[in-house]
Amino acid sequence: MALSHDELAGVVDLFGALALTELSRACAELAFKRGEEAVDATDAVAEAVAAYRLVAFERAGDRDETGTGAGGGTDDHDAGEGWEGAYAPVAPDELGDGTLLAAGPAAFPTLPAGAADLPHILAVEPRDPDPAALGEVVEERLRAEAARALAAGEAERVAQLLDASYEVEAWAPVDLGDVRERLDAVVGDANGTSSGSRSG
Hints:
By secondary structure, the chain is of the alpha+beta class. The chain folds into two domains: 5-129, no CATH class; 135-191, no CATH class. Helix content is 50%, strand content 8%. It has helices at residues 5-15, 20-34, 42-50, 60-66, 118-122, 131-152, 155-171, 177-191; strands at 18-19, 54-59, 87-89, 100-103. Strands 1-4-2-3 form a four-stranded antiparallel sheet. α1 (5-15) packs across α3 (42-50), α6 packs antiparallel against α7 (155-171) and α7 runs antiparallel to α8 (177-191). The longest helix has 22 residues, at 131-152.
């Protein structure tokens, strides 16, 4: 059983944030309840992160303890403690078991059938990630991805990031106007005209 990106975001949003291992277990539990075969959710999660439907991040304390952004356990991800302060982005191809995931700016979180029982099944308390810190994580990642896509001349990815920049600004108090100008110039050149500003 494979969940859509928005369903993955819905499961994560039910808790506030989940580690990759916890989200994988949630997917397996949903498959069991439906009498379907569980599939590894890692690839779908990575695709959702790349599409900005999920935010992959780590807390500063997790990096300090493990020395890596992809490692770490989930024992200290309880509600109410350690969620303030700076987070660091984790790239889609660097996800690890302890990578934390939250619903992203491009998501329309949708609860799949049977998901309402997951908090009881997983025995995971709700978490409260800092919205401002999540916004900074997404801004940092988008700026880095934009720089790589522009340098590599990846027109399709540039167009995707241009669209994502509007979603991010509507979702978090960040200003991506400077990077959007560079992305827009490339998209405009590819179309033979400037793509202009998008409202909403």
